[in-house]
Specification:
Number of strands: 12
Strand order of the largest sheet: 2-1-3-4-5-10-7-8
Radius of gyration: 29 Å
Shape: globular
Structural class: alpha+beta
Helix content: 40-55%
Distance between the termini: 70 Å
Strand content: 5-15%
């Protein structure tokens, strides 16, 4: 009964650790253009057409099968559903890895230790290409399938029932359909089966038919996969040039090859994301004293949930070592360490020989998609090292406790740093996501409802953000025109750059300018949709023409907790004294130049304060200021003094 109570309490602590660790991740939205593309594809409903063209463009036949699965997190158009799906499978991959470790090392406490370390060192990354942050579903999902394959292989070894080996092969085949890198994993499977048979049968293993019955099914699948892979590329090669990331390097660099093997592991090192993101830390800090790269400063300013998480982790860590048995033999620890090291570097091999990564500056990145796999092996390696030190001092009680204290201090320090870093960096990615959240809310509020179907909307601001890390999310194939069209159910004439604007509008059209300003320290954002005075447009001014374009009417939307604020706008020239209306009510003392108006929203529960601005004299469509957000050509101080 007592053991059951301890197990239940331990399970509760682990559940709390999981929740507290993943909490900052749930603030993170779209991180890459790929994430956005998967979402848009699901919303458009053309996932199979998309899979077809992706398979041709990349020369990867398996996209025809697996690409539709990439859209599973976006089946329901709900941010929290997406996050739950993504991080449930991340959790599942961690749990499955823990089970594999327990099966191999035959010690529950050690497996739980590795599981704990996976969460203690899990980091929000500045690199948007690491699958813990970006497109995590199909990486964690496919790796989980591979781990299930390993579990079935271990089950076969335990029971000698061939059906488990066949099931292992089937699961490996499914995993292989997600990513070529799983071909590398085959060498570990074959090596494992070879070593097992050598131990059991000695030098006669190569003459034993049972060995080939175990190995050949895996090898057959891999050979068949490679044959189909290159046959498909041969079939479609005339359609278009293949994606450079799935093609061998034309001018192979051995130097870049080894740089990739080294650099792509860096992000899996505890707190590496923190130490390489100091600029982002400084920009994102919402503390009055800013950010200081000092542990005592971090300790005194870390969020309460991260501090509690660290205390729980340390408590569980100490408990696991106090109950840990000295049962794992040195030989198994050594083999485990060697396998982990080889695995850590080998998972990047296929990327390192590809044209995109080997011959460009991609080799300088401190992490990439395959870093997800090496995170498991590096964490396992750290767990093995901790256990080895514990094992060395096991028979000397004082030294054993000193080792426990030392590693507990290590976990405490790095968990505090990572918790602080995760809150900080996730806040940055959250700001990047705010554009989509607020756009959805504005569409619901009818932002575009009054715009005529043939009107022209200039919207370059929405592709930019004050986010230090997420500034390039809306690049590559993403289009706000397509996004808004999907949400509205109709297509609007939207352009997001000057060249498209100049080539697409005429002076007879209604033209609208979409202006956005956001707070670099919070989610505050305000957006103004102005109906442009066509006669103020001078295309000779180039991409800066909208800085002098004017309007007489606009709708303002302010997303912030504040319901009373100062609103500033600029009337550059006046023929006569301006008459300004807010929601149809005339405001007194309007003047030529900067105007300051107090706005009060009586509905304190409303997320977005909106109001309509009209003026008898034209105002600039780019010069707006709310509190300390935005810009007017006049001095900021004028607004703050009113």
């Amino acid at each position: 009964m007592k053991n059951k109570q301890i197990s239940s309490f331990l399970l509760l602590l682990f559940a709390l650790i999981v929740i507290l660790t993943l909490y900052p991740f749930f603030k993170v939205g779209f991180v890459t253009a790929d994430d956005l593309e998967y979402y848009m594809t699901m919303r458009r409903g053309d996932i199979f057409t998309d899979a077809y063209w992706y398979s041709i463009g990349a020369g990867r036949f398996y996209f025809l099968i697996t690409k539709p699965l990439y859209s599973i997190p976006y089946i329901v158009d709900n941010f929290y559903y997406t996050k739950i799906i993504q991080y449930s499978f991340l959790l599942l991959s961690f749990i499955t890895f823990m089970i594999v470790i327990r099966k191999i090392f035959k010690l529950k406490e050690f497996a739980l230790l590795v599981f704990l370390l996976l969460f203690a060192f899990l980091s929000v990354t500045p690199n948007c290409f690491v699958p813990i942050m970006a497109y995590p579903f199909f990486f964690s999902f496919s790796f989980t399938i591979f781990l299930f394959s390993i579990l079935q292989l271990l089950k076969y070894i335990e029971t000698k029932k061939y059906k488990y080996l066949i099931l292992s092969v089937v699961l490996y085949t499914i995993a292989l359909l997600f990513y070529e890198t799983f071909l590398i994993f085959l060498f570990f499977i074959v090596a494992f089966l070879l070593i097992k048979n050598i131990i059991e049968k000695g030098k006669t293993v190569l003459k034993d038919k049972s060995f080939y019955k175990e190995v050949l099914p895996f090898c057959f699948v891999a050979i068949l996969y490679i044959v189909i892979y290159f046959m498909y590329r041969e079939m479609v090669k005339n359609e278009m040039e293949f994606y450079a990331g799935s093609s061998f390097a034309k001018n192979f660099s051995i130097k870049n090859f080894f740089k990739i093997l080294w650099n792509y592991n860096k992000i899996a090192i505890p707190a590496y994301a923190y130490y390489t993101s100091q600029n982002a830390m400084e920009v994102n800090s919402i503390l009055a004293t800013g950010h200081h790269n000092n542990f005592w400063y971090i300790l005194s300013h870390v969020n309460i949930h991260a501090f509690i998480n660290t205390i729980l982790q340390c408590f569980v860590f100490v408990y696991l070592f106090l109950t840990m048995k000295n049962s794992i033999p040195w030989k198994k620890l050594l083999i485990g360490a060697v396998v982990a090291i080889i695995f850590t570097f080998s998972v990047h091999i296929l990327l390192a020989v590809s044209d995109k990564y080997n011959t460009t500056n991609w080799h300088t990145h401190g992490g990439y998609v395959t870093s997800f796999y090496s995170y498991f092996s590096i964490t396992l390696l750290m767990g093995i090292f901790m256990y080895a030190c514990f094992k060395l001092c096991y028979n000397i009680k004082v030294l054993r406790y000193l080792v426990i204290i030392f590693f507990t201090s290590f976990v405490f320090c790095f968990s505090i740093i990572i918790g602080y870093s995760n809150d900080n960096l996730s806040r940055d990615w959250q700001r990047s996501q705010s554009r989509f959240k607020i756009m959805d809310k504005l569409i619901d509020k009818g932002l575009f409802d009054e715009i005529p179907d043939n009107a022209f909307i200039y919207m370059n601001d929405m592709s930019s953000t004050s986010s230090y890390l997420g500034y390039d999310v809306c690049t590559q194939t993403f289009s706000w025109k397509n996004y808004i069209g999907l949400k509205l159910g109709k297509e609007l004439n939207i352009c997001d750059n000057f060249s498209n604007f100049v080539g697409g509008f005429n002076h007879e059209q209604d033209i609208y300018c979409f202006t956005k300003y956001e707070n670099i320290k919070s989610e505050e954002m305000f957006i103004i949709l102005s109906k442009v005075n066509n006669n103020s447009i001078d295309t000779d001014k180039g991409e800066y023409l909208f800085y002098d374009v004017t309007s007489n009417e606009a709708i303002v939307y302010y997303y912030a907790p504040y319901k009373s604020f100062k609103f500033g706008f600029n009337i550059p020239d006046c023929v006569e004294k301006p008459v300004v209306h807010i929601n149809g009510i005339e405001k007194e003392a309007a003047n030529c130049g900067v105007n300051i108006i107090r706005i009060n929203n009586k509905n304190k529960k409303e997320e977005i304060t909106s109001f309509r601005l009209s003026s008898s004299e034209p105002f600039l469509v780019r010069d707006f200021l709310i509190s300390n957000i935005g810009y007017v050509k006049s001095d900021y101080q004028e607004l703050n003094n009113n």
